[in-house]
Design a protein that fits this description.
alpha/beta; two-stranded antiparallel ribbon; globular; 38% helix; eight-stranded parallel beta sheet; TIM Barrel; 253 residues; 15% strand; 10 strands
């Protein structure tokens, strides 16, 4: 298993020497034609407005117009019950296939909730064509939650099957965090927004877990692409460390 890093788009432009092949796009933006793969999700609408995302018809239409890509289910951050309710409403309305998101009210300490949600989504078969489920960001660095992540992944696969791919939403805070996710060996992919948010703040990522340095001279978009390259390098380094040393905390791969 090699960790994939999926990058949240900050615009639709393709840049020279752009390292981002796999991207994720928030509602209601357009899909870039240059990306090898693009996922779609409802974005931070709920976080920005303080209200539950409930315009399911518009989201479904946006997904349908951009068909043939991975679409994530509408979710309520850290509210598993509301997220499951959105799932039921989505399916009762007959909208298209979406990938479920496991939300945690108390982070990865809430394994009972993760089990309940996995069993809930296991009742539907349509989403399993993607072989993918999302685990909401545990809100901690990968090194701090390593054991909990492994337990959660084992629990999810015990219910949904060993072949299910697990994506951690909102991870990838820096190269140290990304390297940690790669070393785990039980997570298939993560996505990063921090690579460009840090760039806007003038932070230049360094390789292999070294702390970022301040850079106020490089344009932030150029800095973001540099950070993306460092993210991919950190993922490769973590993968190689696990494979070469036999060190792993999760599923071997």
């Amino acid at each position: 298993m090699s960790l994939r890093v999926i990058f949240t788009l900050f615009d639709e432009q393709k840049y020279e020497n752009d390292p981002r092949e796999h991207v994720i796009r928030a509602y209601p933006g357009n899909i870039p034609d240059w990306a090898e793969e693009c996922w779609l999700h409802c974005g931070d609408w709920a976080a920005r407005t303080g209200r539950l995302f409930d315009d399911l018809e518009s989201l479904a239409r946006w997904y349908q117009e951009r068909g043939g890509v991975v679409c994530l289910a509408p979710n309520a951050r850290q509210r598993p019950e509301q997220t499951m309710d959105l799932w039921k409403r989505w399916h009762e309305a007959g909208y298209g296939t979406v990938v479920p998101i496991l939300e945690c009210r108390r982070g990865l300490n809430d394994l009972d909730s993760i089990m309940t949600q996995a069993e809930f989504y296991n009742q539907w078969d349509d989403w399993k064509e993607h072989g993918l489920i999302c685990l909401a960001n545990p809100l901690e660095n990968s090194h701090n939650v390593a054991g909990k992540v492994v337990l959660a992944c084992n629990l999810i696969r015990g219910i949904l099957g060993d072949d299910i791919k697990i994506h951690v939403l909102g991870a990838g805070w820096d190269t140290n965090d990304i390297q940690g996710w790669a070393e785990l060996g039980c997570v298939d992919s993560i996505d990063s927004t921090a690579y460009y948010e840090d760039a806007k703040a003038g932070l230049r990522w360094q390789s292999r877990g070294v702390e970022p340095i301040y850079d106020d001279k490089t344009p932030w978009r150029e800095l973001a692409l540099h950070n993306a390259r460092m993210a991919l390098e950190a993922a490769r380094w973590g993968d190689n460390f696990r494979k070469q040393t036999g060190f792993w905390r999760g599923k071997k791969g």
